[in-house]
Design a protein that fits this description.
Pathway: Carbohydrate degradation; glycolysis; pyruvate from D-glyceraldehyde 3-phosphate: step 5/5. It catalyses: pyruvate + ATP = phosphoenolpyruvate + ADP + H(+). Its EC number is 2.7.1.40. By secondary structure, the protein is α/β, with parallel strands linked by helices. The protein has five domains: 229 residues, Alpha-D-Glucose-1,6-Bisphosphate, Chain A, domain 4; 83 residues, no CATH class; 258 residues, TIM Barrel, CATH 3.20.20.60; 84 residues, PK beta-barrel domain-like (M1 Pyruvate Kinase, Domain 3); 117 residues, Pyruvate Kinase, Chain: A, domain 1. Helices cover 30% and strands 23% of the residues. Strands 1, 2, 5, 6, 7, 8, 9, 10, 11 and 12 form a ten-stranded mixed beta sheet that branches. Strands 15-16-17-26-27-28-29-30 form an eight-stranded parallel beta barrel, surrounded by eight helices. A six-stranded mixed beta sheet has the order 20-19-23-22-21-25, with no helix packed on it. 42% of the residues are buried. The N terminus is likely disordered.
Length: 920
Amino acid sequence: MTGWGVWTSPFPKILLSSTDHGKLQELVQTILDANLKRYLNFTGVDLNSWKLIKGKDDMQVYSNRRDQRQWPLTVRVDDDRELQTLLCVGSSPGTLNEMMDGVSKSANGVKDLNINDSSSAAELVRIKAPNPLEPFAGVAIKWMELDVRRRSMGMVKNRDFVYIEATGIKNLPSGESLGYHIMHSVGIPGATILPGRVRSELSICTFFRQVNQSLFTHSLAILEPMSERVRQFVVPRFIKMLQSTFRPTSESSMEKVKSFARTLSQRHSEQNAQRLSGSDHYCVTCFKRRGRMHKLARRQNTCIVCSGSICSACKIEKKLKVPSVGAKVTTKKYSFSEDSDNDSESYPQIHHWAWTTKRPSWSTSKSSDPTVDFTSPKLNLSPTLKAASTSSVAPIFIIMLRRLTFRSVPSVRSFASASELYKNPRSSKFSMTKIVATVGPASEQLEMLQNLTDEGLRIMRINFSHAEYDEALQRIKNLRACRGVHAEGMAKFNLRAVLHDTKGPEIRTGKVRDGKKIKLEKGKSVVVTTDPAFENQGTADKFFVSYQKLSETVKVGDTVLLSDGLIRLTCTSVGKGEITCHIHNTEEIGNRKGVNLPGLVVELPALSEKDKRDLDWGVKHDIDFIAASFIRKASDVIEIRRFVDECVKRHWTSHPNYIAPKIISKIENLEGVQNFEEILEASDGIMCARGDLGVEVPAQKVLTYQKMMVDRCNAVGKPIIVATQMLESMQNNPRPTRAEVSDVGNAVLDGADCVMLSGESAQGKYPVESVATMNTVIKEADELLLNPTYQAKFQFDSPTSDVESAVSSAVKTANEMHAQLLIVLTRTGYTARKVAKYKPTVPVMCFTTDLKVGRQLQIHRGLYPVVPDNVNRAPTTAEAISHAKKMGWLSSGDRVVVISGDKLSDDLGREILIGVADVQ
């Protein structure tokens, strides 16, 4: 199987269960932790245990000395042959980011530049893909084949490998970043041994560390070539692979090609480069005069990027491979001239899911999961290792080459048939994803609010950019006067929540002169000033903005957007307290329009004075959530929480157990995206506010950032709301566009806890129809989520606490036994929120005695809070099941899983009780 084309998998489509996906990620983490400990203790190569077998540049490859019988980490096969162990150490020029860019890109879909080290390769299963926060992260199951037929003249069959590959960055406690790359053999059902090949095993782990201007590399590889004859052909291949992988010219990114070309050009003075430029008698790489016979070899000795001449010495010394335009991988021996930098774009990167990498990594794992089989008939430990395995710290090599075997997953159809799709009894009653609807003039009346709640409104949003206090108070009273639907609690204990959306700190223009709109014309210039004298005197030539540090923040070439991005200006000069801008499009502008400075870091307070007054009013009236606008960093959230706590002390002194409103951080600018991890940690939830975010960043980036936010919130178990323009056309039309329906549905399929309506329900012509339409789309998408194809998306890290372990087991039990309902008895809501993190496929009825807790649980996907009649006593399990049956959620013969969680004390922790019952 030789050639340079795009390879597809030689196996049928392989499906793994969600449990298997989780165990594979656990395996990667175990590998990383075990090898990191060994690497950090590495001080140098012990030549008594290692023998140098090849060295090139500053990279050396060593082999374990096979006569070292006393080495405690020796692993044997059949008790008489050691496994071949290779150690590759050395340094190379470059940076960690450059190396990891090449490693991760080749590992995540770009054909490796060292493709001739294997004859064919394919990706079998993708487990984890890179994201904006972890651009170098990736986990996949892959297959590759080593072609040894030429050297063995047919006496030795080709060796192939099925292995897990992982890349990423590990941050050490010292703050230093360490790149890693892992490859480790696994056994996967369906990836059977191919005719004419022998399945071999490998385990490689590589670390990259920045040391001054160089990149230190440490790689340990273990092979199981199975015979002396094979070792003669396979091991040299791996030696070549290890060394070529870490050459700085072997990065898969074309950026590396450019960097290499620039490095070469810097060796020579500009005068010398000009003198030799275009001369056919000089090598474009070393600038030495070529020999007399160069014309005979010109066709072969040519840079394929700039077509310059290359001497024979440079042709042999410099070897690179780049993907060509024709979706082939072109192997050339050539160097790069300075001109290559301009032409290299004509050779773009070729992406394909089947392309893979052969970069080093190694592994270890331990698990008690029944789907993982650690038995391997090939491997037997030496007596030394058997004794060591009983100690508290087992040597890494004991578990390094154990092959993981996963149980087969029954094949499933991608989608159920129409007749089967609606057999689920909850499909017509329950929607797992919640609806947040903005209430405004078009929907604030009691009758209209009652219709909205009947159609599925769970959380009412009040936008304090427009609402007055008396309007907001009337909306809250009307909501709490609405009766419940689906008997989700008694009418007097209506559990619809209130979300208080702050106006937030903002930059605005001043007023225009005489109150008449001014016209900014394309091609002209305008002065933007912070001088208060122009605050009410704006003209087409000069107007005021409220950000006093404007001239310190904006530089020449930066963009300034006015009126929600309708008008684009570019700064052409900066003066004291003002900037001069070029106008890109003709548009009229009125009083106090919004100003955006995309990509710039602005110094604005977390709360304006209006925000403080509004929040004080909101806390006084017992709001449930605060949507904090324009959050840029974690300190903004901390400042808001501190102010809210002060308001609670001021208004709720007589209620010592009062629960403060949860803070939902709105991500609306690039700085918020860049600091997303710290914001997420400090917040109770996230709102992906796509409207303002789409002004600050390119529109196509909103898609990437939305996916990232949803994934990260799902991973840590915090709720996320996807908002803005979800059914925008329904402000004026009774039916949505097809694209809007897909937008809502895809947000649900991504894992959003809530989807939000803004103008559609606040001021549109069809507020009830908007909520009803969104609810219908949610139910349809919820049905799709029941399919294993989609369930496999929700893979989470191992539980971080005993409570999460118990809760995740209960959710798994409910999913697998197709329970009709999952009941959670909770006082504080803690256990219920943990249940929501693991995305149950069945609705969750949460019994609590606290109205505020119940309302705040509404934001989580799949949770339906219930407050019983007697709020002074938590219901028993039997009472909860009886109550659910009376409410129509259960009937005789249904199966239900019950979780009861309560905090015993600070010392004893929490008590989690799990039970399964059949309804009588």
